[in-house]
């Protein structure tokens, strides 16, 4: 009976070790961040984001200049105006300041939305290519080896070059 338990234990260890070895052969890794950076669509998206950002920045700068000019004008004319007029002017300037802040907030939200809209098709294309290459090469799991992505050591198959070839880059 003791020999049977030992034999059963040895068989279980052998099967477990064999399964573990086979499972490791079915795992690959890829740095998705490097892949996406190397895709031509990413350069186009980045230039579009920069262009949009410069447009918003120019608008905000123009609004700020107008605000500064009004402030200087109203401060210079304050002593020649009535309290009622100065009060109206102060409300106008405060409204301008609020409008600038609101525009800045809206611009930031628009930039974030545009970034998501531009990146979504790029990441989906990358994911589809990764899946296609991984399936063609028989991998069951593909880990993301991007810095900080949770993979500390990646000695397995790196799919980056194969996926780039699939994408034609």
From TrEMBL:
Gene3D superfamilies reported in the protein's UniProt record: Skp domain (3.30.910.20)
Keyword Signal found: yes
GO-annotated molecular function: unfolded protein binding
InterPro entries: Chaperone_Skp (IPR005632), Skp_dom_sf (IPR024930)
Signal sequence, renumbered to the chain: 1-23
GO cellular component: cytosol
Any one GO BP annotation for this protein: protein stabilization
This protein's UniProt keywords: Signal
Domain of life: Bacteria
Stated family: Belongs to the Skp family.
Name of the featured protein: OmpH family outer membrane protein
Organism: Bizionia argentinensis JUB59
């Amino acid at each position: 009976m003791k020999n049977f338990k030992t034999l059963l234990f040895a068989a279980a260890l052998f099967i477990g070790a064999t399964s573990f070895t086979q499972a490791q052969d079915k795992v690959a890794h890829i740095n998705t961040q490097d892949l996406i950076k190397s895709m031509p669509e990413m350069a186009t998206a980045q230039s579009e984001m920069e262009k949009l950002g410069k447009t918003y920045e120019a608008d905000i700068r123009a609004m700020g200049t107008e605000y500064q000019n009004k402030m200087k004008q109203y401060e210079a004319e304050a002593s020649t105006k009535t309290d009622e007029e100065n009060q109206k002017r102060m409300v106008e300037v405060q409204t301008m300041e609020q409008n600038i802040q609101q525009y800045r907030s809206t611009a930031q939200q628009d930039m974030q939305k545009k970034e998501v809209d531009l990146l979504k098709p790029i990441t989906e294309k990358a994911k589809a290519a990764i899946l296609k290459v991984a399936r063609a090469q028989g991998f069951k799991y593909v880990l993301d080896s991007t810095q900080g992505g949770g993979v500390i050591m990646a000695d397995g198959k790196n799919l980056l070059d194969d996926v780039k070839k699939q994408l034609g880059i």
